[in-house]
Predict the structure.
Amino acid sequence: MNERDATGAGTRVLVCVAGAETEPFWERCRALLPPDAEVEIHHVIDEVPARELEQRFMRHPGHPPPPGYDARARAAETRGSDAILEDARRALGIAAATSLGRGRPEWEIVQRAGETDASLVVVGCRPGQLTTPPEPHSLGHVARFVVDHAPCPVMLVRLTPEGVPHVPGSIQSSVLADG
């Protein structure tokens, strides 16, 4: 790994997005990222649902997918993912590269962190459930895998649930793993 200084210069941060992130998530990211960090926003197209659909078609040989279905489906997935990445870059509000992976999100994120020599991976606790209080099942399977297998520290962005006392403007996040 490269030398990192106290300002964050040389720090490479991989911010992983599912497409369900809201403004509070981005506020937390902006507040927590080192000021001079190199940021890459990463999205993964989960190919498991496509494989399951393909297997379904194979079980029903009399009902194959329409001609060109695979190419059209891949193109639609890519367009949707490009939109997710562009929305994320705009929401983050700082210069950031973007990258797109295909496969199992948890594996692709860990692999990308290694490929980019990331100093930090940022993930949400569960898409759409960022205010879930810490408990045994508050992490989705992707975040859990990344926390357990990333080659660098992982920061879980969790928003303070309503009703929990906190200092205005405070951030409740955890660095859960130090690969």
Observations:
- Residues 69-92 form the longest helix (24 residues).
- DSSP finds five helices and six strands in the chain.
- Confidence is low (pLDDT under 50) at residues 1-7, 163-179.
- Residues 12-177 form a domain with the Rossmann fold fold (CATH 3.40.50.620).
